[in-house]
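**User:** Everyone, produce a chain:

**Assistant:**
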Amino acid sequence: MLADVMRVLPKRAQGITRRTVRESQRWRLLEAITEAVARRGYAEASVADVIEIAGVSRKTFYEHFRDKEDCFLKAYEVLSDRLVVAMKSAIEPKMSVATRRRAQLTTCTIRSSPEPSWSTCSAPAHAPCEPANE
Protein backbone atom coordinates (compact mmCIF):
# COMPACT_ATOMS: atom_id res chain seq x y z
CA MET A 1 0.00 0.00 0.00
CA LEU A 2 1.42 3.35 -1.01
CA ALA A 3 -0.85 5.50 1.16
CA ASP A 4 -3.28 5.25 4.00
CA VAL A 5 -6.39 6.43 2.17
CA MET A 6 -10.00 5.39 1.98
CA ARG A 7 -10.05 2.24 -0.18
CA VAL A 8 -13.78 1.94 -0.74
CA LEU A 9 -15.78 5.10 -1.07
CA PRO A 10 -19.46 5.04 -0.12
CA LYS A 11 -22.01 5.26 -2.95
CA ARG A 12 -23.16 8.60 -1.61
CA ALA A 13 -20.19 10.59 -0.48
CA GLN A 14 -22.02 12.43 2.28
CA GLY A 15 -19.56 13.87 4.75
CA ILE A 16 -16.58 13.10 2.50
CA THR A 17 -14.78 16.03 0.92
CA ARG A 18 -14.00 16.13 -2.79
CA ARG A 19 -10.34 16.29 -1.83
CA THR A 20 -10.63 13.00 0.10
CA VAL A 21 -12.29 11.35 -2.90
CA ARG A 22 -9.65 12.61 -5.36
CA GLU A 23 -6.80 11.63 -3.04
CA SER A 24 -8.24 8.14 -2.66
CA GLN A 25 -8.63 7.79 -6.41
CA ARG A 26 -5.11 9.01 -7.17
CA TRP A 27 -3.40 6.71 -4.67
CA ARG A 28 -5.48 3.73 -5.78
CA LEU A 29 -4.47 4.44 -9.37
CA LEU A 30 -0.79 4.67 -8.41
CA GLU A 31 -1.04 1.36 -6.57
CA ALA A 32 -2.97 -0.17 -9.47
CA ILE A 33 -0.31 0.72 -12.05
CA THR A 34 2.33 -1.05 -9.97
CA GLU A 35 0.11 -4.12 -9.71
CA ALA A 36 -0.78 -4.11 -13.42
CA VAL A 37 2.88 -3.81 -14.41
CA ALA A 38 3.86 -6.56 -11.97
CA ARG A 39 1.25 -8.89 -13.45
CA ARG A 40 1.63 -8.15 -17.16
CA GLY A 41 4.79 -6.10 -17.68
CA TYR A 42 4.79 -2.46 -18.68
CA ALA A 43 4.22 -3.04 -22.41
CA GLU A 44 1.21 -5.32 -21.87
CA ALA A 45 -0.37 -3.43 -18.96
CA SER A 46 -3.16 -1.15 -20.10
CA VAL A 47 -5.19 1.72 -18.75
CA ALA A 48 -8.12 -0.73 -18.69
CA ASP A 49 -6.12 -2.99 -16.35
CA VAL A 50 -5.28 -0.05 -14.10
CA ILE A 51 -8.83 1.27 -13.79
CA GLU A 52 -10.21 -2.20 -13.15
CA ILE A 53 -7.73 -2.79 -10.32
CA ALA A 54 -8.26 0.72 -8.88
CA GLY A 55 -12.03 0.56 -9.19
CA VAL A 56 -12.38 3.90 -10.97
CA SER A 57 -13.68 5.03 -14.34
CA ARG A 58 -11.58 5.79 -17.41
CA LYS A 59 -12.69 9.44 -17.07
CA THR A 60 -11.31 9.51 -13.51
CA PHE A 61 -8.01 8.05 -14.71
CA TYR A 62 -7.60 10.84 -17.26
CA GLU A 63 -8.56 13.49 -14.69
CA HIS A 64 -5.43 12.45 -12.78
CA PHE A 65 -2.95 11.39 -15.49
CA ARG A 66 -2.24 12.14 -19.15
CA ASP A 67 -1.67 8.50 -20.04
CA LYS A 68 -0.30 5.18 -18.75
CA GLU A 69 3.27 6.45 -18.85
CA ASP A 70 2.43 9.51 -16.76
CA CYS A 71 0.75 7.31 -14.13
CA PHE A 72 3.66 4.86 -14.12
CA LEU A 73 6.27 7.60 -13.79
CA LYS A 74 4.39 9.19 -10.86
CA ALA A 75 4.25 5.82 -9.08
CA TYR A 76 7.92 5.24 -9.83
CA GLU A 77 8.75 8.67 -8.40
CA VAL A 78 6.86 7.95 -5.16
CA LEU A 79 8.53 4.56 -4.75
CA SER A 80 11.98 5.88 -5.63
CA ASP A 81 11.68 8.80 -3.21
CA ARG A 82 10.64 6.47 -0.40
CA LEU A 83 13.48 4.10 -1.14
CA VAL A 84 16.06 6.90 -1.13
CA VAL A 85 14.78 8.16 2.24
CA ALA A 86 14.88 4.63 3.68
CA MET A 87 18.40 4.00 2.36
CA LYS A 88 19.67 7.32 3.73
CA SER A 89 18.18 6.61 7.14
CA ALA A 90 19.81 3.16 7.22
CA ILE A 91 23.30 4.58 7.51
CA GLU A 92 25.24 6.40 10.17
CA PRO A 93 28.20 8.73 9.59
CA LYS A 94 30.66 6.53 11.50
CA MET A 95 29.96 3.42 9.41
CA SER A 96 32.62 2.20 7.00
CA VAL A 97 31.81 2.42 3.29
CA ALA A 98 31.28 -1.34 3.11
CA THR A 99 28.97 -1.33 6.13
CA ARG A 100 26.98 1.61 4.70
CA ARG A 101 26.52 -0.16 1.36
CA ARG A 102 25.50 -3.40 3.07
CA ALA A 103 22.96 -1.50 5.20
CA GLN A 104 21.60 0.28 2.14
CA LEU A 105 21.31 -2.92 0.10
CA THR A 106 19.59 -4.67 2.99
CA THR A 107 17.16 -1.76 3.29
CA CYS A 108 16.53 -1.83 -0.45
CA THR A 109 15.80 -5.56 -0.37
CA ILE A 110 13.57 -5.36 2.69
CA ARG A 111 11.61 -2.39 1.31
CA SER A 112 10.91 -4.29 -1.91
CA SER A 113 9.94 -7.56 -0.25
CA PRO A 114 6.53 -6.78 1.31
CA GLU A 115 5.11 -5.61 -1.99
CA PRO A 116 6.44 -7.59 -4.98
CA SER A 117 4.95 -5.14 -7.48
CA TRP A 118 7.26 -2.42 -6.12
CA SER A 119 10.38 -4.30 -7.12
CA THR A 120 8.94 -5.04 -10.56
CA CYS A 121 8.34 -1.34 -11.15
CA SER A 122 11.61 -0.19 -9.67
CA ALA A 123 13.91 -2.67 -11.40
CA PRO A 124 13.45 -2.46 -15.18
CA ALA A 125 14.59 -5.52 -17.09
CA HIS A 126 17.18 -3.47 -18.95
CA ALA A 127 18.80 -2.02 -15.81
CA PRO A 128 22.52 -2.77 -15.59
CA CYS A 129 23.56 -5.23 -12.90
CA GLU A 130 27.10 -3.97 -12.58
CA PRO A 131 28.28 -0.58 -11.31
CA ALA A 132 29.17 1.91 -14.00
CA ASN A 133 32.86 2.63 -14.47
CA GLU A 134 33.52 6.15 -13.30
Remarks:
- The CA atoms of residues 113 and 119 lie 8 Å apart.
